[in-house]
Input
Amino acid sequence: MKINKNYQNIEETYLFSEVAERVRRFMEKDKSATLIKMGIGDVTRPLCRAAVDALVKASEEMGTAEGFHGYGPEQGYEFLRDEIASYYQRHSGVKLYSEEIFVSDGAKSDIGNILDIFDVDNIVAVTDPVYPVYVDTNVMSGRKIIKLSATADNDFLPMPYPGLEADIIYLCSPNNPTGAAYDKTRLKKWVDFANAHGSVILFDAAYEAFITDPDIPRSIYCIEGARSCAIEFCSLSKTAGFTGTRCGYTVVPEGLVREGVQLRKMWLRRQSTKFNGVSYPVQRAAAACLKESGQEEILQNIAYYKENATIMAQTFAELKWPFAGGKNSPYLWVKCPHGMRSWAFFDDLLERANVICTPGSGFGDCGEGYVRFTSFNTHDNTVEAMRRIKEIFA
Ligand code: PLP
Output
């Protein structure tokens, strides 16, 4: 037998284990320090009432002969797909058909699994810095990857250029880790490029709920032409605090055809073969969050994180530290002061302010000299972390 040797080409990511190790060593030296984690990508607000009620009710139903649900439809229950369609209609005026929506246990699985429907010979374009899943899943299957630099010069939003050869293009907007988001004009250029070259855009909209600027599209389908070139991934993880509950969805439009084949049909075949759906209570909870009543609660949580982001943005502006994000995103991508490298600034911040961030170099070469802050901590901790930072660095 032969193993998949491509796995030997995956770069070990030491990022979060190295962060944990440095924090552990620091705590050994200074046991009394009160650390504040501003690097975490996980949410902290609890599930909203509408989600909890729906989970309880659906679980009760499962314990009755009439309400029991066994295997559900692989694509997700109709009630949730309809709710997702109406969510898109409400927030962006985008019309989706129920058959185009595939419910899953989260965006990460779908982002990895979608590669099953593409040949290994396709050239893949990702941004640098990047959400590592895009890179590692392609390395696992042996695809060639090109990196598009996201720097201050292009507002951290790489654009297509003449001669770019890319069959599969990953775009994440609002972006993890930079927090930058494509406006309609820039996104249209990518859509036009993909349609002209027959490429497919894999659009990661996991943070769409943080968008408030009307010029920033919450879905790639707000852009004319996207239905013939883009697959969109979305998730309730950051929208509704489902990081532990697990529910997401992928949209594969009817009009997306390559080599005469509808990609929607291929994805349906893939999912019905390898996936058996998301649990009934979780789908009920997801639907409750997307309904207008649930949305009121969800928006309060998002507003909470956005307020944190605003406090952070004000602090960095006062300190004159250049940064991106924090406006339509929970992430702030901050340039290290005095030309420091990412890890050096991470250590400095840890030791002097007892604040933990994430070194940007862990997301790619272009991340060197930057750190990522998130707004997912509590309000009090965010205020305290910023107070310490100002006191030390002002
Ligand atoms: N996409 C991006 C850009 C993310 O940052 C994350 C999680 O941090 C995901 C996808 C994964 O989302 P999910 O929890 O739905 O798997």
Notes: The two ends are 61 Å apart (CA to CA).
